[in-house]
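Quick start: what a row looks like.
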Amino acid sequence: MYRTRYILRALFLLLTVSLLYYLNKRTDLNLGAIAKFKYETLNKIQSDSLDSKNKLDVLIHETEKFNEQINEDSSRTLKVIYLLIGVVTLFMVSELIFTIIMKRAIVDKSQN
């Protein structure tokens, strides 16, 4: 009984740590993409000899393109967050089940 409980704890801990690592890595990539976007957009606007309205159109177009990429990454991140919540919920349910089983075993021993 204890062995199964410890194996499940280790498995849930490993899954949780790996999902948190993935989320942290994903956040770093998104921050890098945002900084790169700002730098490239600033260079495009400075290098263009267009009037203000055309510069605004270029800025809007580039921002829309970037937002599509961020939204795609956000959906993946949201899936990982849901997975993380599921793993933590399964951990809590398994601990509750083991606690109930152990309490029943203690009650059965005391009645005999």
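That is the whole record. The mean pLDDT is 83. Residues 2-106 form one domain.
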